[in-house]
Design a protein that fits this description.
The protein is α/β, with parallel strands linked by helices. The protein is built from 14 helices and 15 strands. Helix 8 crosses helix 14, helix 9 crosses helix 10 and helix 9 runs antiparallel to helix 11. The protein is globular.
C-alpha cells in the first residue's frame, strides 16, 4: 500500500488508489500525445524545408564525395582499414569508465538556504543508544559495491524517529546490498509523535546525516513514525472490478467517518474465489502531517518517491530476515522505538491490525532519571547496559513502565484473537533500538505465555535483523545494533529496490 507518491502534484492530492490510477493514465496520455506531436512536427518540417536541399545534394554533391572517398580508400593499406575499424571500439571502455565514475560520485550537499538552517548552530544531543552504549561504536561508511547492470539504481530509506534519524542506501542484487548508512540523534523536541516541531534543528540533523553518509543518490522512500493508522475491514458482495472500486470510494467516508479532503486513504482487496464476497482493508492517515513532511524532506534536497507506512516497511525487512517464513501464518511485529512502540499483526502476509502505543525507550529513560537523579545521557547509558535484568540496580525504576507496555501489547493481541476465532500467533518479531535491551525478549515471551490461553502459546519471540541476509560492511560487534536500528529504513528502501 502507498499512501502518497510525489511524481506530480495531481498524484500528491489524490486520496484513493483509483484516483491515482486515473491521474497516472492522464499523465501518460498527455506525454504520449506530446511526443507524437513533436515527431509529426519534425517530419512535416523535414518534408517541407529539408527535402529540396536533400534532393539537390543527392543529385549534385553526393557523386563527387563518393568518388573522392573511393580514391582515398584505394591509397589506404590493409592495416589502415583495421585502425579505422578498431579506433572507435577502443574508446568504448574509456567512455564506460568515465560514465561509471560520474554516476558513483556523490552529489554536492544542498545549499544551506535549502536546508533552512538557523542563524546560529543548533547543538545536537548525544544521548541516543548509538553514542551512549560503550560496546557499540559507529563504523565508517561502507564503500559502494560495483553495480550489476546499467539500470541498477540505489535508493535511500529514511526513517525519522523521535530519538534517531536513520538513513540507509540499498542497491538491488542477490542478496540486496547496503552501500552506505548513517545514524544521528534526533534533536530533542524537534519531532513529536510524527509532527515536526523544530524544522531548523531537524534540518541541521539531516545535514549532519548526509555529511556522515556520503550518499550517492537523493531518491528516497521515507516514513514518519508516530502517526496512527486507521484500519477497517469491509465485506462487499461479488461485483466487477470497476463497480468494486466505485463502491469502495463511496464507503470510505461512510466507514471511516472522516473528511476525505483531510485524509490520505488506500485500500487492498483480498484474493477470493469467483462468486464469493470480497474482503477489503481500508487504510487512512491524516493528510497534513504527511504533506508537510514531504515538503520538508524535499527542501532538504531529497527526491521523495514514496511515503510508506511503518508496519509495511518493518514487514519487508522481516520477510528478508526470515526468508519469507513470516508470509505464512499470523505474526505480531513490535517496533520498540524511542518515543513510541508500533504494534502490527500480519496474517498470511496481509496487515490486519496496526496500533501506536505512546510508550517507548524515552519513557524508560525518564523513569531512571526521576528515581536516581541522573541526567538523560547517564540514565540512557544505564538503561542500555542493564536493561530488564532482575539484578539490575535500576530494575525497580523500569518495572512500572515495562508492565504498562507489556499490558498494551497483550491488549492488542487479545483484541485481535477475539475478532479472529481459531487463529493463533505463530511468532513475535521485535525490532527497533530498544529491542536489544537485556532480557526484554525473554520477559516479553514469558508475559505473553502467562496471559494467553493454552491454544495460543505455541509461538516464539525473535529479534529481526535483515542485515544477516544482506551484503554490508558493518563490523561483527555492531551487527545486532545496526540491524535492529536500521530495520525500518531497510524496509523502506526494499520497497523500491
Amino acid at each position: 500500500m502507498r499512501l502518497v507518491t510525489q511524481k506530480d502534484k495531481s498524484q500528491t492530492k489524490a486520496t484513493t488508489r483509483s484516483e491515482r490510477n486515473r491521474a497516472t493514465r492522464r499523465q501518460r496520455n498527455r506525454s504520449a500525445w506530446g511526443i507524437a506531436g513533436v515527431v509529426v512536427g519534425l517530419g512535416v518540417a523535414f518534408a517541407v524545408l529539408g527535402w529540396p536541399w536533400f534532393a539537390r545534394f543527392w543529385q549534385e554533391d553526393a557523386p563527387t564525395l563518393i568518388s573522392r572517398f573511393a580514391v582515398y580508400a584505394e591509397r589506404l593499406n590493409h592495416y589502415s582499414w583495421w585502425l579505422l575499424a578498431l579506433g572507435p571500439l577502443a574508446m568504448v571502455p574509456i567512455l564506460a569508465r568515465t560514465f561509471r565514475r560520474i554516476r558513483h560520485s556523490p552529489p554536492q550537499v544542498p545549499p544551506a538556504a535549502s536546508l533552512r538552517f538557523p542563524k546560529e548552530p543548533v547543538p545536537l544531543p548525544r544521548s541516543s543508544p548509538a553514542e551512549s552504549a560503550p560496546p557499540v561504536k559507529p563504523t565508517p561508511p561502507v564503500n559502494p559495491a560495483p553495480r550489476r547492470g546499467l539500470f541498477a539504481r540505489p535508493v535511500l530509506g529514511i526513517d525519522v524517529g523521535n530519538s534517531q534519524i536513520k538513513i540507509v542506501e540499498v542497491a538491488q542484487g542477490q542478496p540486496p546490498r547496503v552501500l552506505r548508512q548513517s545514524i544521528v540523534p534526533t534533536p530533542r523536541e524537534s519531532v513529536e509523535n510524527g509532527l515536526i516541531r523544530e524544522p531548523a534543528a531537524l534540518s541541521a540533523a539531516i545535514f549532519e546525516a548526509i555529511s556522515r553518509g556520503g550518499f550517492s543518490t537523493r531518491r528516497a522512500a521515507t516514513t514518519l513514525t508516530g502517526q496512527n493508522l486507521m484500519l477497517r475491514k469491509l465485506t462487499l458482495p461479488p461485483m466487477p472490478k470497476r463497480e468494486l472500486r466505485a463502491a469502495i470510494d463511496w464507503q470510505i467516508e461512510q466507514v471511516l467517518q472522516l473528511n476525505r479532503e483531510d485524509t490520505l486513504t488506500d485500500y487492498s482487496v483480498m484474493p477470493t474465489r469467483p462468486g464469493e464476497p470480497s474482503t477489503v482493508i481500508l487504510v487512512a492517515m491524516q493528510r497534513e502531517p504527511i504533506i508537510n513532511f514531504v515538503d520538508f524532506m524535499q527542501s532538504a534536497g531529497f527526491e521523495i518517491i514514496r511515503v510508506d507506512i511503518e508496519p509495511l516497511a518493518v514487514f519487508r525487512a522481516a520477510l528478508l530476515a526470515t526468508e519469507a517464513r513470516v508470509k505464512q501464518g499470523t505474526h505480531l511485529v513490535c517496533d520498540f522505538g524511542g518515543g513510541t512502540t508500533n504494534l502490527s499483526i500480519f496474517r498470511e502476509g496481509v496487515l490486519q491490525t496496526a496500533r501506536v502505543v505512546s510508550l517507548g525507550g524515552n519513557q524508560l529513560t525518564r523513569a531512571v532519571m526521576m528515581e536516581h537523579q541522573l541526567d538523560f545521557a547517564a540514565a540512557e547509558a544505564a538503561k542500555i547496559r542493564h536493561g530488564f535484568a532482575p539484578e539490575n540496580p535500576y530494575f525497580t525504576s523500569l518495572l512500572p513502565t515495562r508492565d504498562r507496555l507489556f499490558g498494551e501489547i497483550v491488549t492488542t493481541v487479545n483484541f485481535f484473537l477475539a475478532e479472529n476465532k481459531g487463529v493463533a500467533i505463530d511468532s513475535v518479531q521485535i525490532v527497533g533500538g530498544n529491542s536489544l535491551l537485556p532480557c526484554l525478549a525473554e520477559q516479553l515471551e514469558q508475559n505473553l505465555r502467562d496471559v494467553l490461553r493454552s491454544e495460543h502459546k505455541d509461538f516464539h519471540v525473535a529479534l529481526t535483523n535483515p542485515l544477516t541476509r544482506m551484503a554490508h560492511g558493518v563490523q561483527r560487534e555492531g551487527l545486532g545494533w545496526y540491524g535492529a536500528s536500521l530495520c525500518v529504513a531497510i524496509g523502506l528502501a526494499l520497497g523500491e529496490v
